[in-house]
Design a protein that fits this description.
The structure holds 2 protein chains of 2 kinds. By secondary structure, chain A is α/β, with parallel strands linked by helices. Chain A is built from 6 helices and 10 strands. In chain A, the strands form 2 sheets. Chain A has an 8-stranded mixed sheet with strand order 3-4-2-5-6-7-8-10. Chain A has a two-stranded antiparallel ribbon with strand order 1-9. In chain A, helix 2 crosses helix 3. Classes of the chains: A alpha/beta, B alpha/beta. The interface between A and B is medium-sized, with 28 and 23 residues.
Chain lengths: ~180, ~1150
């Protein structure tokens, strides 16, 4: 089995949590590759660490999820995790694009992602999706798989357009689009 | 190690020090730096690695998070840059290695799985491990571990060390070099100094100096060193100089030594010769062994030269006894005390013969026995023989002297015996009542006889002197009597030659002295004789002067001044030699034996004085002086004062005029009169005398002392003029003073009407007597005959009928002695020799025995012994204490001793001086207690019975008073009258005097009063006055009570005196009325008496009064008597003339 990437501070509790999470992910993610969903969720969570929002609300960091996806559920597990010194909020309303989101994950199932994207222009939301060619089409971060590994592709321009700064460390890793 | 360091030279030390210091510091610095560097490098590395790790970590977070090992790997590969990093790994949070790197340098390191150590930096087998956590958003997601090789570090470290070492060595060398160069700064000066010092000490060249090259301590040292060298150099120079001198000195010394040795050799040779040629044996002894001796000693003892050396001194002694004895005597007692030991002893020669030797030995140095003792030995055999001869001769000479003495003694005796007779007889003759002329002549004859005796004595004395047998007596005598004898002899001569003989007395001379009057008189006689002899005209003055006087001793200076021919210096120098006269012609002109002065000198010397020519000029005169020491009879002094006091009041205030052309004579008289408190005036001739008397006025003169022979008018002329002079109201009494009673003078004087007569030279006592007599104040001193002398108490000894035995073989002497003794109220039995004497003392109890020595049958000494032996027999005790007095003509101390030895108590010498006899008897003879047959006899005056009336007086002890005044009742009464007149209110007078003139004056008055009241026998009064006097003497005025007592007692006396029948007149018993014829006769006598002898006048008046008692003439006679009393002689004479005329007119 592949090891879980390290997420939290090396606390045994966290480790236990992760184990639980893993168990949960495993049990839940029937539709997709559960592992993949897990990784993507983890990646999504980690992404927030490498992005700078110009106006970050003080009370929380919102990750909005559009679409119904196992990732969304998994993400829900990450609620109250702290990132950027804020607790994480996962918003799974779907359907409607929340105005108060920092990260928007558009699940695969969502076909109307382009519209969503267009509706988000001018806002500072990080758009992430695992739909193909998300990044090349105005999305900021896309997940793709390669040789069984989930990889990232990033559209720096889009990020820039949204006034978001993506750390070079991330950029390094990811495939830049275009 | 330490030692060796010290011995290193400074240079080395300095270099070493510098090197050591610098090396140490370098090492220290280097070490510190290296250590620091190492740590730093490591730190650096660590830091590098850490930052690298951090960077990697940071860079790789995304890769890890997003599980991109590739990128992670790439990132790690970037570590290639750092060679040190040999491996690196990224762990994920599960402890798995996510990515790794290996540099390829080493084998890939197997990064351990698992959690990290937690330590960031750790060293693991020479590798450094760094762990850096990868933190994303506050959560650790993994860690980076870097492994770096320290080998690089070590290499660097080694390089570094090598380099450092290199540097060190380099530095060391450089330092060494520089140091060794630079040390010169310090060491060179020191080296130089050292070098110089060494040079100096080696070469002893103190002129070297160090060079001063710096200003630091070394410089100072150099400076000091140089200074020191200066000093040393100069000192050295001095020393050298001194040394040189020393050497010179030594050389000189050596030379001198040689010289000395040479001289010593010479000297020794001389001394040896000296010693050897000495006529006495000289020997040097050490420890009683002969160290060396001279040839004479060898000869003396009969030894070959040199034999005696090293022999013990025992060799010359006769036996061991002598040797031991002398040894004991000589050494410790004498020789080692620095004295000379002298002895005469018989010594033994080599051949055994003995000879007498004198040895005198002396230590060379008493303090050091080593040098030894030098002894001189003389053969005195010849000497001894000579001594024997001398001894024999001495014995012979002594015998001869003895014979001579015997001869002298005998001659003395033989000569004195007839002389004694002459003198004695004269004495007896003079004891009778004689007309003054005869008396005078006999006196003179006696004086001459005495003088003759003196001359004989001169000759005998001279013999005695030659034999050395002259001795002085020590008896009491009065200078006056000596002078009287003198005056008698000299006066005659002086008068004969027409020169004045004056005696100037010193009133301070005590009346009684103790000495040898005979010898003293002899000296005076001799001197005065010479003075008179060698004076043609002018005067001879004998003056006395007390040089010093105290209670016991008198040092008397006597000078004889004449206006004679004088002496030249040559004569003066030979004056005291025997037989010398001024020149031979002098002998012819003046006569004389020439012995006198020699004897005088001897006598004066014996009397503790000296004699000399004070002044003498040819043609001008001579003054001879001598001093003698005499002793003083103490009571005499006291008595003298009393006398004066007694006399004082009686004479006080009397005015006297002394008339004499000779100034000296005038002075002498005036002095003496003043001493008696008379008011004295002088006149040089008749005219001025008259003048003075005329001008007397209110205070007329009471008395005139008139010299007879004067220029212009003679004394008698003047007297006549005085008597006739109307201006002279109250005629004074006149006493004629003339030299050497010439009968014609006396007659003239009588005709002129004198009241008294004095013969020059006048003694104070004679003068006093004459004055008193002339003034009618009685003879205070008692009856005196010129040729007689009483010892001080003014009365003849009264032995009240004591019975004495006189033992004398010579008829004349016996007769004389008997008379003399009778005069002393002594009953005398006679014995003609000693045998008779012894028998007579046993038959009769005598108060004493006067024993002549030289008698036939049995002499006085033997008799005396026999008498004393009688004392041993029972009932003969009185013979032990019987006073036996020797009468000896021998007058030598030996005889006195012999007399004493024979048991005699005392001795007197013949010719017997009456006063001596009296004094001696007074001492030894006790007058019998029972009843005096007679009161004190007075020659020439009828003894008076003391009226009962007088004896009855209570406040007066009349018998005492009478006795005091010499036994004459009349005189006593006179005294009482005077007292009555003089002291009626003495108490008040005394008070007045004290008040006005003080205690001192009061004491004088009181003292006089005391004397007078004592003399009149007013006992109680005397006591009272004496008490007051004592008070006054102590400066205290008498209190009222005392004065009251005085007044009371005084009044009592006055009353008693008043109660006496007729004041001033003697016997109160009424005599039978006198017939007119008798009256007339008496009046005539009275007239004469008033002119000449007031004393007789008293008696006559008494008779007259008695004769006219109750008669018509009584008032007249009373008046007459009163006038006489008041000394209104002229008036009395007038009254008398009237009376006579009255009586003549009667039938």
């Amino acid at each position: 089995m592949a090891t879980w990437p390290a997420i939290a501070p090396p606390r045994p509790a966290l480790a236990a949590l992760l184990a639980a999470l893993l168990a949960l992910f495993t049990s839940l993610a029937a539709a997709e590759n559960p592992l993949e969903a897990k990784v993507k969720a983890a990646y999504l969570f980690n992404l927030t660490k490498f992005v700078d929002w110009p106006d970050l609300p003080a009370d929380a960091l919102h990750i909005c999820v559009i679409g119904s996806d196992a990732i969304g559920g998994l993400l829900g597990e990450l609620r109250d995790r702290r990132v950027k010194d804020r607790p994480l909020r996962i918003d799974r309303n779907g359907g409607v694009v929340p105005g108060n989101c920092q990260v928007l994950f558009i699940s695969r199932s969502e076909d109307g992602w382009r519209d969503i994207l267009q509706g988000l222009s001018g806002s500072t939301v990080l758009t992430v999706s695992d739909r193909d060619s998300f990044a090349s089409n105005g999305g900021m971060v896309g997940f793709y798989t390669e040789s069984g590994k989930v990889k990232l592709e990033i559209n720096p321009q889009a990020a820039r357009d949204a006034n978001l700064h993506i750390s070079s460390k991330l950029l390094e890793l990811a495939r830049s689009v275009p | 190690m330490g030692l060796s360091l010290h011995t290193l030279p400074i240079k080395t030390k300095l270099v070493l020090i510098i090197l050591l210091t610098s090396t140490l510091s370098l090492a220290l610095a280097a070490g510190s730096f290296i250590a620091y560097e190492r740590v730093r490098v490591k730190d650096e590395l660590v830091k590098n690695l850490t930052s690298l790790a951090r960077v990697i970590a940071d860079r790789s977070t995304a890769a890890l998070l997003f599980d991109d090992a590739e990128v992670a790997r790439e990132t790690l590969n970037a570590l290639k840059v750092k060679r040190a990093i040999v491996a690196a790994a990224i762990y994920n949070d599960s402890g798995e290695v996510f990515a790794r790197y290996d540099s390829g340098e080493e084998r890939p390191y197997p990064f351990p799985e698992g959690a990290g150590s937690g330590v960031q930096v750790s060293t693991l087998d020479n590798h450094l491990h760094l762990e850096e956590p990868m933190v994303v958003d506050g959560a650790q997601i993994g860690r980076v571990v870097l492994r770096a090789s320290l080998r690089e570090l070590s290499l660097v470290w080694q390089d570094f060390l090598l380099f450092a070492g290199l540097i060190a060595v380099l530095t060391f060398l450089t330092t060494a070099l520089i140091a060794s160069r630079l040390q010169r700064l310090v060491s060179r000066p020191l080296e130089e100094l050292t070098g110089i010092a060494r040079d100096i000490s080696e070469q002893k060249n103190y002129s070297l100096r160090a060079k001063r090259t710096s200003d630091d301590e070394v410089g100072t040292l150099v400076e000091a060193f140089n200074t020191m060298l200066e000093a040393i150099e100069s000192r050295d120079r001095e020393l050298t100089g001194a040394n040189r001198q020393l050497a010179q000195g030594e050389e000189r010394l050596r030379q001198i030594n040689e010289e000395l040795e040479h001289r010593v050799e010479e000297r020794t040779a001389e001394l040896k010769a000296l010693l050897d040629t000495a006529t006495v044996g000289i020997v040097l002894m050490k420890d009683r062994s002969i160290a060396d001796c001279n040839r004479r000693l060898d000869e003396m003892l009969g030894y070959p030269p040199g034999d005696l050396v090293s022999q013990p001194t025992r060799i010359w002694y006769r036996d061991d006894a002598d040797w031991t004895r002398i040894g004991n005597e000589a050494y410790e007692q004498v020789i080692w005390k620095g004295q000379t030991y002298l002895t005469e002893v018989q010594l033994q020669r080599r051949d055994g013969s003995l000879f007498w030797a004198r040895m005198s030995a002396r230590a060379i140095d008493p303090r050091d026995r080593a040098p030894g003792v030098v002894m001189v030995m003389e053969d005195i055999s010849a000497e001894r023989a000579a001594l024997e001869e001398m001894r024999r001769a001495k014995v012979l000479a002594e015998e001869a002297t003895h014979m001579k003495s015997e001869f002298l003694a005998n001659m003395s005796h033989e000569i004195r015996t007839p002389m004694n007779a002459i003198i004695g007889m004269l004495y007896l003759a003079l004891r009778m009542e004689l007309p003054p002329t005869l008396q005078n002549y006999l006196s003179k004859a006696q004086g001459a006889a005495q003088s003759l005796l003196g001359i004989i004595n001169d000759i005998l004395d001279f013999s005695k002197i030659e034999s050395g047998k002259l001795e002085l007596e020590a008896v009491e005598f009065g200078l006056d009597s000596v002078l009287e004898h003198l005056s008698d002899a000299i006066g005659f001569q002086a008068e004969h030659k027409g020169i004045e003989f004056l005696i100037r007395y010193d009133v301070g001379i005590p009346p009684t002295l103790i000495g040898d009057p005979l010898r003293l008189g002899q000296v005076l006689l001799n001197l005065c004789n010479n003075a008179v002899k060698f004076t043609e005209s002018g005067e001879v003055e004998l003056a006395f002067h007390c040089l010093s006087l105290n209670d016991t001793d008198l040092n008397l200076q006597i000078s004889v001044r004449d206006t004679g021919i004088g002496m030249n210096e040559e004569t003066q120098s030979r004056l005291f030699e025997k037989f010398s006269q001024a020149d031979q012609s002098t002998t012819r002109r003046f006569g004389g034996t020439g012995l006198g002065l020699a004897i005088c000198k001897h006598l004066v010397d014996m009397m503790g004085g000296r004699i000399w020519v004070e002044d003498s000029r040819p043609g001008k005169g001579t003054t001879m002086c001598c001093t003698v020491r005499l002793k003083v009879a103490r009571e005499a002094l006291a008595h003298r004062r009393e006398l004066l006091e007694q006399v004082g009041p009686l004479l006080k205030g009397m005015r006297v005029l002394v008339v004499d052309d000779n100034q000296v004579s005038r002075e002498i008289l005036a002095e003496m009169l003043r001493y008696f408190q008379l008011d004295v005036a002088v006149a040089a001739n008749g005219e001025s005398a008259l003048d003075t008397l005329q001008r007397a006025g209110e205070q007329p003169f009471d008395l005139v002392l008139m010299d007879w022979r004067m220029p212009g008018m003679n004394g008698d002329q003047v007297i006549r003029l005085i008597r006739r002079d109307p201006v002279i109201d109250r005629k004074p009494k006149v006493v004629m003073v003339t030299a050497y009673g010439r009968e014609d003078v006396m007659t003239l004087a009588e005709k002129a009407g004198v009241d008294g007569f004095l013969v020059k030279p006048v003694s104070p006592s004679t003068l006093l007597d004459a004055v008193l007599t002339a003034l009618g104040r009685g003879r205070v001193l008692g009856e005196r005959k010129p040729a007689e002398h009483h010892p001080g108490n003014g009365a003849t000894l009264d032995l009240k009928g004591a019975r004495l035995l006189l033992v004398e073989d010579n008829d004349i002497n016996r007769e004389f002695a008997v008379e003399l003794l009778h005069s002393m109220n002594v009953q005398v039995d006679c014995a003609v020799n000693g045998e008779e004497a012894v028998a007579m003392v046993q038959r009769q109890a005598y108060a004493g025995v006067l024993m002549d020595i030289q008698m036939p049958v049995m002499d006085g000494l033997e008799a005396s012994r026999r008498i004393r032996q009688l004392a041993a027999a029972p009932g003969g005790e009185r013979f032990a204490t019987l006073p036996i007095i020797a009468m000896t003509a021998l007058a030598m101390a030996r005889d006195a001793e012999n007399s004493m030895a024979a048991g005699m108590n005392d001795h007197i010498t013949k010719p017997i001086a009456p006063d001596r006899l009296m004094a001696t008897l007074a001492r030894w003879i006790q007058p019998p207690r029972d009843g005096a047959p007679r009161p004190g006899p007075e020659q020439g005056a009828a003894p008076n019975a003391i009226p009962a009336e007088l004896l009855a007086l209570e406040s007066l002890q009349a018998d005492q008073g009478i006795k005091r005044i010499g036994g004459k009742v009349d005189a006593y009464l006179k005294q009482l009258k005077r007292f009555r007149e003089h002291y009626p209110d003495a108490a008040r007078e005394l008070q007045r005097i004290i008040a006005e003139r003080g205690v001192q004056a009061g004491e004088e008055y009181c003292h006089a009063l005391k004397g007078v009241s004592g003399n009149i026998g007013a006992g109680p009064l005397f006591e009272c006055v004496a008490a007051i006097d004592t008070e006054l003497k102590e400066g205290r005025a008498p209190d009222a009570a005392q004065l009251a007592l005085l007044a009371q007692r005084l009044a009592a006396v006055m009353a008693d005196i008043d109660s006496l029948a007729r004041p001033g007149v003697g016997t109160a018993s009424a005599a039978a009325p006198l017939l007119p014829a008798e009256l007339v006769r008496r009046l005539d006598l009275l007239h004469a008496a008033l002119d000449h002898d007031l004393g007789a006048a008293e008696g006559l008046l008494a008779e007259l009064r008695g004769g006219v008692a109750g008669g018509p003439l009584e008032p007249a006679i009373s008046a007459l008597a009163r006038q006489v009393d008041d000394f209104a002689i002229d008036e009395a004479l007038a009254t008398l003339a009237d009376l006579r005329a009255q009586l003549a007119n009667r039938p």
